[in-house]
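note to self: dont lose this again. the chain is below, predicted strucutre after it. 218 aa total, dont forget to put it in the shared folder this time
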Amino acid sequence: MAGAVVIGAGPGIGQAVGRRFAREGLPVGVVARTDATAGAAAEAVLRAGGGGAVAARTADSTDEVALRAALDGLAQELGPPDVLVYNAALIRPDTVGELSAREHLDAWAVNVVGALTAAAHVAPGMAERGRGTVLITGGMPEPKPAYVSLSLGKAGVRALVTLLDQTYGPSGVHAASVTVDGPVAPGTAFDPDVIAEHYWRLHTQPREAWEHEVVHRG
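---
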């Protein structure tokens, strides 16, 4: 049974999404920047139960070669994924003119280009199989001058979802973003386990009811 791959499997939304899919019995692959984070994510997903296989790979989402290799390794171990979740982001406050051009490019590489690389790597296979889901974690429903690079990045995510839908939607691939309008913290209205339900619901939506952005406002 094809499962899910979560890129950016940190202790918040990433792990929660992995656990949610694992509870359905799906194999789950997790990708994180460090061995420690990837290992902790795999252990957390495995504890969630469901009986599906769990595998971990280490890659920086801005390293195209490493990211593609991680996706290939997980596909070889678990099978081609039916779900790709891109949850990596560079979140920091910055104002207009505060960052250098290089810093903006670095933020864009994490927030948008990594998602494009991952989607372009797995979505063609999904299209060939006639099914699949690509989900990207968004944020900043409205641009905020205190978060310029993040506002630009999340606008890029929306554009990317539209482009993925136009490219792969006709072949059965559902592209969508989950926009989180607040700080993620357990036990709050922005509990990661609550947010993870959106990802499962989007994956299981019938084609005639596809949504392309869900905004979690708490």
